[in-house]
Specification:
Order of helices and strands: HHHHEHHEHHEHEHEHEEEHHEEHEEH
Helix content: 40-55%
Number of domains: 3
CATH topology of the largest domain: Aspartate Aminotransferase, domain 2
Strand order of the largest sheet: 2-8-7-6-5-3-4
CATH architecture of the largest domain: 3-Layer(aba) Sandwich
Distance between the termini: 69 Å
Largest sheet: 7 strands, mixed
Oligomer: single chain
Number of helices: 15
């Protein structure tokens, strides 16, 4: 049988799996996918087949085994980490991009939409008009790109081209961020040759925002010893509590010490659309680079981060490679494709020079579909609603003598715990850890845990478009019920 004959019938394939996907979307977050003896494990963990089972059997396994026990992030009660299942239109757009627009280049619709979606995303986040961007696979890579550009500029000012020559024989560099910074920043420092220890992890205040006096002290101390200030990093929505750093204050420090200001808004940059929080984001307009994840609050499929720079050419100075005959040499020029007589004649913008990968999916098509479907005002309504959910939960916690708020919500994260009088901190941590296990194993509610000021916290993050107010109220009531039962059982 030829390869062409094996490619299958798309309509038939979709008919085979769509009913299972529809059922999955309606299922509660708590599933049967826990435990070493889950029935699906031996069906999937098998030796590689020497003879393929064919499309019908493979689709049957997908529909009957994979989908029912897959992660149920689309369920209204899934409130864990900062992730959620895609809404339907962007998920279909991902399929379109997979089959009808497999690359982000050339003079086709998907090539154009890569640029259009970046522009739309920047306008949605109210970024300065000179900021231009590039899509990548995640917030982690998006941050790596921005920090790479910051490193390049910092050492270029000293006469070193570190992208070409590496970081040998140059003075050490430093990135200044709070202890709440995402661990991907430490990974980026390691990959870029600065080393994880080059990230100065500075204390936070009582609101979980970076202490500006600590940032100033660290910058001043390093200036006296010749350490290169690579970047000051502000967080527009920490992953732990959703706190927004004083971005204007950090911009002042970056300007004073002549260094790059980077804003990690992977989760929280979209929070700028909430009118109650606009003033917290004014420092973004002074940043040299900003990142945002479309696959968080915009609810597109996972794998779409974006990096925006005031000077996108800095990415080219950092990540460009020498042109090759088979690629760049195959086109007359990069950039605008409107002059071409054939869609295959012009490559389009050189996205590969601004990021790590050459071949890349048409992520812009997916982002475009989400914004085209709901618009800026639809996204604003989603963000205001989700922030309201966190505030609503905080009020429920404050009103219950057996619940305790551990961090005042700023965005859509609310950290709290069950508290029984007379129990020490270690016992309270163990009790709340048990509550989270029971939430995950026997209820529709799946928040994730964290630590806030050393206390074990229950941490729902409201970015799931399918969550409703009744789920918020039921979560608080369920935590209270589980906590009461555990305390009574222990007594």
């Amino acid at each position: 049988m030829s390869d062409a004959a094996r490619t299958g019938d798309l309509e038939a394939a979709l008919r085979a799996v769509v009913p299972a996907l529809d059922a999955h979307l309606a299922a509660p977050a708590t599933g049967t996918a826990s435990g070493a003896d889950a029935s699906w494990r031996p069906l999937l963990d098998t030796p590689v087949p020497q003879l393929g089972a064919g499309d019908v059997e493979t689709l049957r396994v997908l529909a009957e085994t994979v989908v029912p026990d897959a992660m149920r992030m689309t369920a209204p009660g899934f409130l864990g980490w900062i992730t959620t299942g895609s809404t339907v239109v962007p998920a279909v757009a991902r399929l379109v991009a997979t089959l009808a627009g497999t690359q982000r280049y050339l003079g086709h619709t998907t090539g154009l939409l890569e640029s259009v979606a970046l522009r739309w995303l920047a306008e949605t986040c109210q970024l300065p008009p000179e900021m231009e961007g590039v899509f990548s696979s995640s917030g982690s890579v998006a941050n790596l790109l921005a920090i790479g550009a910051a490193r390049q500029r910092a050492y270029t000012r000293l006469g070193h081209d570190v992208a070409r020559d590496g970081v040998r024989d140059v003075p050490p560099g430093r990135i200044y961020a709070s202890v709440e910074v995402h661990h991907c920043v430490l990974k980026a420092a390691a990959v870029l040759g600065l080393g994880r220890d080059a990230v100065a992890l500075l204390p936070v205040d009582g609101s979980q925002r970076v202490d500006l006096s600590a940032v100033r002290a660290a910058l001043s101390a390093d200036a006296r010893t010749g350490v290169v200030p690579v970047a000051v990093l502000g967080i527009a929505g920490t992953t732990n509590t959703g706190a927004i750093d004083d971005l204007d204050g950090l911009a002042d420090l970056a300007q004073e010490f002549g260094t790059w200001l980077h804003v990690d808004g992977a989760y929280g940059l979209f929070g700028r659309l909430d009118p109650r929080l606009e003033a917290r984001y004014t420092g973004v307009d002074r940043a040299d680079s900003v990142v945002v994840d479309a696959h968080k609050w915009l609810c597109v499929p996972t794998g779409i981060g974006a990096t925006f720079l005031r000077d996108r050419a800095a990415l080219g100075q950092t990540f460009t490679s020498d042109p090759s005959d088979y690629l760049e040499g195959a086109f007359e020029e990069a950039g605008d494709t409107s002059w071409a007589t054939s869609p295959w004649e012009a490559m389009g913008p050189p996205f590969h020079d601004w990021t790590l990968d050459l071949s890349a999916p048409a992520r812009g098509l997916v982002v475009w579909s989400a914004l085209h479907e709901i618009g800026v005002e639809g996204l604003r309504a989603r963000i205001v609603r989700d922030n309201d959910y966190a505030r609503s939960l905080a009020e429920l916690v404050r009103a219950d003598p057996c619940l305790e708020l551990l961090a005042e919500p700023e965005l859509s994260i609310c950290c709290f715990r069950y508290r029984a009088h007379g129990l020490d901190e270690a016992t309270l941590d163990a009790l709340n850890r048990d509550i989270v296990r029971r939430l995950h194993g026997s209820t529709p509610y799946v928040p994730s845990p964290t630590l806030v000021d050393g206390h074990y916290a229950i941490r729902p993050c409201f970015i799931n478009p399918r969550t409703e107010q009744r789920d918020v109220s039921a979560l608080a009531a369920t935590v209270r019920r589980l906590g009461d039962a555990l305390v009574a059982g222990a007594g």
